[in-house]
Design brief:
single chain, elongated, 24 helices, 2 domains
């Protein structure tokens, strides 16, 4: 007898879903046409991306002097955005790798999008060290290769070089981990594809996945190995990023708390971005049954814990700066001077967004509320950006010499590059949602019987567990499954129209290629009798028909019943 969760636990998959329903729901955004909301979001993101491309081209062509930098503040928005994007990329690996090792079922509905977010965020982060070089065409000199230019040797003095090593490793492992998890889903889309070009593309992407036991065995082994490799990267990558600051002598930077503090902040901001994206995807891609309150609440708990760690780090930095009594510590990013000085707005934005607002998650009604979660996640994203800004700009604005104190003001190029990376990120994410399965359907199916609401309800009430009953096909008798959903049948007939025997004459549906005597009886039982009804079928109606009958899924679409019926009725 298999092991099941206690019925008291809330269901992870809602909506009385079957295995076929999961397949249809996951494939729907890829097989169907993009809706209006998707196009609006894509156009806005594309415009922002093109703006950023123009700003980057202007920077490379003119020089980084077009930024708002000066002799004192030589790192500003570029490194702020770099650290911010790296932090956002951490949640995907944490959800995928760490939660996989701990066998947490609630990760399965959200891990795919979180992994994609990691890849796209790291791509944005990797752009900034390249842009910061200024003369990007001279990047050859920074590569760790043997000397090919006579007496010129490679310069390893830049701290950003080690960030490049860390980011490259992180990106490669995350990309392989993400792609490995996608193989069963690519194969599912391949098997459902009706267009030869689409089938060919997904055949290449699936790497010959067959679904045999050997494939699944290797899939499990590789996933665990990659999770074991990725878990230390969650800690090491942002630790290396924090060393850019912690190994310096600049007031406010030489702090030993930076490595764990940066890691906690990265997970904090990463989970907030996951919430932001998934709550949008939940509505746009109709994933309400797979991204539920359980996922939202669990992620909010992680945000609450990591936010608490970050707040403790804030208080320790504030206390140390005050307790030392050093004048050089009086204007670091967390100090009385920063709270009342010219950057007071940045300081209080950091405190309010990162330390005060997330405390609302202590209340269960807010922690499980979709709208409140979305709003608070936006504030956290803003607050974490201000944290990076404060660490860099406030600390650099005042050094040991009062004569060198200065202020930073961003230019339109700084703003344009940042908005461009946001646009690029959302362009990639929106294209991903239209071409890749956003839900790991194989993993979700594996927990359906233990975490689906219909199964949990049956176990709680002592009823027999629901079983999928196929259509009974016989030469003399055809019966549609007794548990075929009445609402699905009503929805299908509302689109196709109903048949009135008193005023209408039934057509010979067997004239449609793919409809034999048995299938005709099945259609008649549902209420489909005429060519006119069949001619109104679209992808939506095909999927409903497959779900109701449970027989020969995809045949109606492959044989183009609607197109054939249109010709026959005319």
């Amino acid at each position: 007898m298999g092991h099941y969760e206690a019925p008291i636990r809330e269901a992870i998959i809602t909506g009385n879903k079957t295995y076929h329903d999961i397949t249809v729901d996951v494939a729907a955004p890829i097989e169907g046409k993009a809706n209006k909301n998707w196009w609006i979001a894509f156009i806005i993101a594309l415009v922002a991306f093109l703006w950023g491309i123009g700003a980057i081209a202007y920077t490379i062509g003119t020089g980084i002097g077009v930024w708002g930098l000066n002799n004192r503040i030589n790192w500003a928005w570029d490194i702020t955005n770099f650290v911010w994007w790296v932090g956002i990329g951490h949640a995907g690996t944490l959800i995928s790798a760490v939660l996989l090792l701990f066998r947490q079922k609630w990760r399965m509905g959200i891990n795919r999008s979180a992994e994609a977010m990691t890849i796209f965020a790291v791509v944005q982060a990797g752009m900034f060290p390249l842009i910061h070089m200024g003369r990007i065409w001279d990047g050859f000199y920074t590569l760790p290769i043997p000397n090919q230019l006579g007496s010129l040797w490679v310069n390893f003095n830049s701290p950003l070089l080690w960030d490049v090593f860390a980011i490259s490793t992180y990106l490669s492992v995350s990309l392989v981990f993400w792609w490995t998890g996608l193989l069963p889903d690519f194969a599912m889309i391949r098997d459902r594809a009706t267009k030869p070009f689409q089938k060919k593309i997904y055949s290449l992407l699936s790497f010959g996945w067959s679904g045999k036991a050997k494939d699944w065995q290797r899939f499990e082994e590789v996933s665990l190995v990659l999770a074991g490799l990725a878990t230390p990267l969650v800690l090491s990558v942002h630790t290396i990023v924090s060393f850019d600051f912690a190994t310096s002598v600049i007031p406010g930077w030489h702090s030993t708390v930076y490595p764990p503090y940066f890691v906690a902040g990265a997970v904090f901001s990463g989970f907030a971005m996951v919430q932001t994206l998934l709550l949008i995807m939940r509505k746009v891609s109709n994933l309400e049954y797979y991204i539920t309150r359980v996922h939202v609440e669990n992620m909010n708990k992680v945000i609450l814990v990591t936010g608490g760690i970050v707040t403790v780090a804030y208080l320790s930095e504030l206390f140390v700066g005050w307790y030392t009594g050093s004048s050089y510590e009086d204007f670091v990013y967390l100090s009385v001077g920063a709270a009342t000085g010219p950057y007071w707005w940045a300081f209080w934005s950091l405190i309010i967004c990162n330390s005060i607002i997330p405390q609302l998650f202590w209340f269960k009604k807010i922690r499980t509320h979709y709208v409140w979660t979305f709003v608070i996640s936006i504030f956290i994203n803003i607050g974490m950006w201000f944290e990076r800004f404060d660490i860099i700009v406030i600390n650099l604005s005042r050094g040991h010499l009062p004569s060198s104190w200065t202020q930073f003001s961003p230019t339109f190029v700084d703003i344009g590059i940042f908005i461009g990376t946001l646009g690029f990120f959302f362009v990639l994410f929106l294209l991903y949602a239209r071409t890749f399965p956003v839900i790991a359907q194989a993993e979700v199916k594996s927990i359906l019987k233990s975490s689906g609401d219909n199964y949990k309800r049956a176990r709680a009430t002592g009823e027999a567990l629901p079983k999928a009953k196929p259509v009974v096909v016989a030469a003399e008798k055809v019966t549609v499954s007794s548990d075929a959903k009445e609402e699905q049948t009503n929805s299908l007939l509302s689109s196709l129209g109903t048949f009135d025997a008193s005023t209408q004459k039934a057509d010979d549906l067997k004239k449609v290629k793919g409809i034999g005597p048995v299938m005709e009886k099945t259609l008649n039982q549902i209420g489909i009798y005429t060519f006119d009804q069949v001619s109104k079928m679209t992808n939506k109606e095909y999927d409903l028909l497959d779900s109701i009958t449970g027989s020969f899924p995809g045949r109606a679409e492959r044989d183009d019943w609607a197109g054939q019926a249109k010709k026959l009725k005319s």
